[in-house]
Design brief:
Phytanoyl-CoA dioxygenase; metal ion binding; 296 residues; globular; iron; metal-binding; single chain; Jelly Rolls; Phytyl_CoA_dOase-like
Length: 296
């Protein structure tokens, strides 16, 4: 018998590749993460920051050392439109950050409690069949800043966190109301069963990162065209959890509203022998911080 989810919810996740779990965090829990996120933005020190921007566009994806060594740290990545041609911020630092990552789940007590000390989450993970040795490997606060919070184009998460066989699962928790105008997520239901992986985001031998083709561009275009018009926009309330299969296609539009869209997200994978994490992935564990066990 399921411990947290209903069998109907489990079946729906299997069918659609994503699942909305309303009120996974109560309002006090989600507000605590929101306030801690805002406090981190206030603590953000620009003095020695390389003004690293974050974008999900294939040709401009971040790949500098500040990004590549962020897996065991808490670092800040800026919105592309928050930095002008001269390298200066176009707005206050609190309104310029795209995301904070990637080790909040280990290094910050508030996010650690929700991710690694949460019995509800452990029960949910078991309900979805992760019994071997699932681990959390990255965590982020995504702020989706007013007016400049950029569009996130169609993608699936296994592109960035590939295992053999694929096992990535995303946990996306709304910390603020997510609407059609501030960048709520949209999904192509069932695409985790019909849309093969077309590319992978990897570390390049010469340094930096890049997209490695799995299928030709023409095949990717056909897959995208096949799912056009099938996306479902999913609005959320603070505390709602969205479970995201690593292979489901999803996206979000630009934030055109005057309001932020804070969300906390982290990803989980299976460990060997059930799945093997690829050594070419941009994110790699370190001796100081191996990937975090969830079912302990």
């Amino acid at each position: 018998m399921p411990e947290y989810l209903t069998q109907e919810q489990i079946d729906k996740f299997d069918q659609d590749g994503y699942l909305i779990v309303p009120g996974f965090l109560d309002i006090s829990e989600s507000d605590a993460l929101l306030q801690r996120s805002k406090q981190l933005l206030e603590e953000f020190d620009l003095q020695n920051h390389p003004l690293t921007k974050f974008t999900t566009e294939d040709d401009n994806h971040v790949g500098d050392d500040y990004f590549l060594t962020s897996g065991d740290k808490i670092r800040y990545f800026l919105e592309a439109d928050a930095v002008d041609a001269s390298g200066a911020l176009t707005r206050p630092k609190e309104n310029a950050v795209n995301k904070i990552g990637h080790a909040l789940h280990e290094l910050d007590p508030a996010f650690h409690r929700v991710t690694l000390q949460n019995p509800r989450l452990r029960a949910l993970v078991r309900d979805l069949g992760f019994h071997k040795d699932p681990v959390a490997l990255q965590s982020m606060v995504i702020t989706k800043q007013p007016q400049i919070g950029g569009e996130v184009p169609e993608h699936n998460d296994s592109t960035f966190l590939y295992t053999t066989p694929p096992s990535a699962l995303g946990f996306w928790i709304a910390l603020e109301k997510c609407t059609s105008s501030n960048g709520a997520l949209s999904f192509a239901p069932g695409s985790h069963k019909t849309a093969p992986l077309t590319k992978r985001f990897v570390r390049l031998p010469q340094g930096g990162t890049g997209m490695q083709r799995v299928l030709p561009v023409e095949e990717e275009q056909k897959i995208s065209e096949a799912h056009k018009g099938k996306y479902v926009l999913e609005t959320c309330e603070p505390g709602d959890l969205v479970l995201i299969h690593g292979s489901v296609l999803h996206k979000s539009e630009r934030n055109t509203s005057p309001y932020t869209r804070f969300a906390y997200t982290f990803h989980m994978i299976e460990s060997p022998p059930h799945a093997t994490y690829d050594e070419k992935n941009w994110l790699q564990p370190t001796a100081e911080m191996p990937f975090s066990k969830i079912l302990v």
